[in-house]
Design a protein that fits this description.
TPR-like_helical_dom_sf; Tetratricopeptide repeat protein; 44 helices; TPR_rpt
Length: 841
């Protein structure tokens, strides 16, 4: 399962990390995969030329800019492959050829001219341009450059300088000894033609372009007798491509088209030497480059037949190329074929990284044109996350937010778009939304639960314990998912003290001090600090710091409260595995020193536990009676405020309603939930904190009531309650799931998909679930293009999701990547079967 081993636990920005790795693998580790894009095969070809000591043999003509490697790492988030020279890649990640070239780089000072030049060409192909300048640190003079091997080293230096600096003074100086008095060699043919190409593309004055291209033709004619028909044909085609660029600059598109037709016909007759796969790859790249220019010229000439022909040939030659997919999408968009254009842009975006954000933005435009408004919003957000420093993605997302009346998230976009070189994490989208969970920073999400760790910290700092607390227990995986989806791996620590100093806030420093002094703190302070740690997602640390103490060894109320809370944490952490029954809590409720308020809390918790886990009506009913007795005593106690009493009573009736639910006693269930809802609406909240608790309680109550209505077939009432819950917190992913399920009950899968997409983009609580469910809905609604995108997004987040892989494969021809989907599913099923077999033995 190499595709997962290479990217385990890593979430790419837009495409699955494993897919980006496979498509562009040579740049990462020097090896090649079946799905590797054509341009990336330049790396293994250059490695073979080095091993064969043939630095003057034909290589690929295309080279990528220095930013390409950076984009690959940023979008895939495979940060282990972020290297500036080949020796920085760990051996366990490198292919054999990469390791061989890395060793050559270490020994570069002792290499002869042949190996030094071959190494430099490989570094250029691998986009390690700064390392080229270590191999060729200074310019050679014209005399040395008359030797074709040494000239090849100077070419590598010139190409690397241009890739890193553009047409800088150093780049011009590096080309000068190659082009002013060129020798009649293949190396100089390519150098002179390449210089003419750069001038055609990037220089302001084109006076010398024709001169350089003509000189390259003369040099090629001078060495023609030394070349094989294959070599001469490829070099002639490359010169023609340079001349086409010049013709385009002169706006002679008809002349460019004629030259391309003639050159394509000539190349069609070429055949690579049958015993040289590298030459075959070079020929394939030559044909692909000709197709690229033919397509661009056909567009300029509005030649639709030429467009179609070039597109078909380009896709057949290089099906994993982001550029040809983008060009195909643009053709459809120009014709007003928005659905086909959307499919093309989505395909291009997942093949990135060049143009990922642009493809997503164009896809969003096409999605809006086809009525897929929410899908368009999702694509726009993904474009912003792929290129957060782009003004275009920022403005597009701001416009989308404003069109939806979503000013709170527009404010997050504005903040996330600001550059902060000293604190780059601070402008990460997920950090802006949920900074409290990362390092007790200021969360900007307008959702109810974005600030829970900070609330816990503020109570701990004040030395206070709230009599009424919030109810939401974030899933144990929340912090892990948040960090994975954000890409901020530096926050993935298991202890607060492990967080680097540069990432800490003053509140985090205080938390570290509390944890360091934890053993010597009193029980109340330990409880408060442990709550902060738990809210931050450090559940395992909490369980290590606080050993379980049996109820019969406890004395005061503080110890009893702490051990019940610890029992609750242990239970929540075990959900989905072997359940850790809160038996200590049940014993604490019987403890003679247990306060009435704590006994009430435990009794209500016990009802819910038994209803969900043991399904024991007898146990649930018994604890309900205990809760009722405690509630009566609490409501009669003048020490509690009206706010506290009404909150306790509302929560009581919502929780104990599990008993009539188990009995299927519709009348009592309705009475319990009606009372809970009446109290939730009537709570007299004062101040921001009480208002937060009231809103949270009412939202939870409405959610429970909707489940009650659906359980008894009262769908319309359920729909109404879900809509009201959504109005209280439109940024809560769980509520959008409820909305989607409500729509599915009315057989409206297309609308349900939109709600699941909102769940996904408001994650990370349910990002993968939202995408997977949206994919199923789109498939059901007859939208395979949208379904495939959502399946891939779900696999980006959870590559082992077998149901998602099956859904993707089931699309068949309806998906653009049907063959890959089938192979992925087969691999995943085989992997799962092997694991099951291993466990059985």
């Amino acid at each position: 399962m190499e595709r997962w081993e290479r990217s385990h636990g890593i979430v790419g920005v837009n495409a699955p990390s494993w897919l980006t790795f496979e498509v562009h693998r040579p740049y990462f580790d020097g090896a090649q995969a079946p799905t590797t894009v054509l341009q990336a095969r330049a790396v293994p070809v250059a490695a073979h030329r080095f091993e064969q000591r043939r630095p003057d043999a034909l290589r690929f003509g295309m080279t990528m800019p220095a930013s390409y490697r950076q984009l690959l790492v940023e979008e895939s988030r495979l940060t282990a492959y972020r290297v500036a020279d080949p020796t920085e890649l760990p051996d366990e990640l490198a292919s054999p050829s990469w390791r061989r070239l890395a060793q050559a780089y270490r020994e570069r000072a002792d290499l002869d001219p042949v190996d030094r030049t071959g190494l430099a060409h490989w570094l250029v192909a691998a986009c390690l341009h700064r390392a080229v300048l270590e191999v060729a640190p200074t310019d050679l003079d014209e005399a040395h450059c008359r030797d074709r091997v040494r000239a090849g080293l100077q070419v590598a230096r010139a190409v690397a300088l241009f890739a890193a600096e553009g047409l800088s003074e150093r780049t011009v100086a590096a080309y000068r000894p190659l082009v002013e008095q060129p020798a009649p060699t293949v190396t100089h043919v390519l150098a002179v033609a390449g210089w003419g190409y750069l001038l055609a593309r990037h220089a302001g004055d084109d006076a010398a372009i024709g001169l350089h291209l003509g000189r390259a033709r003369e040099l090629l004619a001078a060495v023609a007798d030394e070349l094989s028909p294959f070599e001469h044909g490829v070099l002639t085609a490359r010169l023609a491509l340079r001349e086409v660029m010049y013709a385009e600059r002169q706006r002679d598109f008809a002349g460019a088209a004629a030259l391309l037709r003639a050159t394509a016909a000539q190349v069609a007759d070429l055949a690579a030497p049958p015993d040289d796969p590298d030459d075959a790859a070079v020929l394939l790249e030559t044909r692909r480059r000709l197709v690229d220019r033919r397509l661009e010229i056909a567009v300029r000439l509005e030649d639709e037949a030429g467009e179609r022909e070039a597109l078909a040939e380009g896709v057949a030659l290089d099906p994993w190329c982001v550029k040809i997919r983008m060009q195909a999408a643009q053709v459809h968009e120009r014709r007003g074929e928005h659905e086909q254009a959307l499919a093309g842009y989505l395909h291009a975006a997942r093949l990135g990284p060049f143009g990922t954000a642009f493809a997503l933005l164009r896809g969003a435009h096409c999605a809006r044109a086809t009525g897929q408004r929410e899908f368009a919003r999702v694509l726009t957000e993904r474009a912003f996350r792929a290129a957060p420093r782009s003004g275009l993605t920022r403005d597009s997302l701001l416009t989308a937010c404003q069109e939806d009346g979503d000013e709170p998230l527009a404010a997050v976009v504005r903040r996330a778009a600001r550059r902060d070189p000293q604190r780059p994490h601070a402008t990460n989208w997920h950090y802006q939304m949920y900074a409290s969970y990362f390092n007790l920073g200021a969360s900007r999400s307008p959702g109810l639960y974005a600030q829970l760790p900070t609330l816990a910290y503020e109570f701990a700092e004040a030395g206070a314990r709230p009599e009424v607390n919030w109810q939401r227990l974030m899933p144990p995986a929340f912090r892990r998912n948040l960090i994975r989806e954000s890409g901020l791996a530096e926050f993935a620590v298991s202890h607060p003290a492990e967080l680097p100093a540069a990432l800490r806030t003053p509140a985090w420093e205080q938390l570290c001090a509390w944890v360091a002094d934890f053993a010597g703190a009193d029980v109340e302070h330990q409880h408060r600090v442990a709550v902060v740690l738990y809210r931050l997602g450090f559940t395992r640390l909490v369980l290590e710091l606080l050993p379980r103490v049996p109820a019969d060894r406890l004395t005061g109320a503080a110890e009893l409260r702490l051990q019940h809370w610890l029992d609750t944490v242990r239970y929540v952490d075990s959900v989905g595995r072997v359940v850790a029954a809160p038996t200590n809590s049940f014993a604490i409720a019987e403890h003679p020193a247990c306060p009435v308020r704590l006994r009430f809390t435990i009794a209500v918790f016990a009802v819910v536990f038994h209803a969900r886990e043991t399904r024991s009506l007898e146990e649930a009913d018994g604890w309900r009676k205990v809760a009722e007795e405690c509630l009566a005593e609490l409501l009669a106690d003048p020490r509690y405020t009206p706010f506290e009493k009404m909150m306790m009573e509302s929560r009581h009736f919502r929780s104990v309603s599990y008993v009539p639910f188990l009995r299927r006693d519709r009348a009592l269930l309705a009475a319990d939930m009606t009372r809970a809802e009446e109290l939730a609406r009537a709570v007299p909240a004062e101040g921001a904190y009480q208002d937060f608790l009231k809103r949270e309680n009412l939202r939870a109550c409405l959610e429970s009531r909707s489940k009650e209505a659906y359980a008894f077939g009262e769908d319309e009432a359920g729909h109404r309650l879900v809509t009201e819950a959504l109005a209280i917190d439109p940024y809560e992913p769980k509520t959008h799931i409820e909305v989607a399920e409500s729509l599915l009950k009315r057989d409206r899968p297309g609308e349900a998909a939109a709600s699941y997409l909102r769940t996904a983009r408001l994650g990370p609580v349910s990002t993968a679930l939202g995408y997977a469910a949206a994919a199923d809905c789109f498939a059901r609604a007859g939208q395979p293009v949208l379904a495939e995108d959502c399946y891939l997004q779900a696999l980006r987040l959870d590559p082992h999701a077998i149901s998602v892989a099956r859904g993707w494969a089931a699309l068949g021809a309806g998906g653009a990547m049907g063959e890959l989907a089938e192979g992925y599913l087969a691999d995943l099923e085989a992997w799962g079967a092997a694991r099951r077999a291993a466990r059985a033995h």
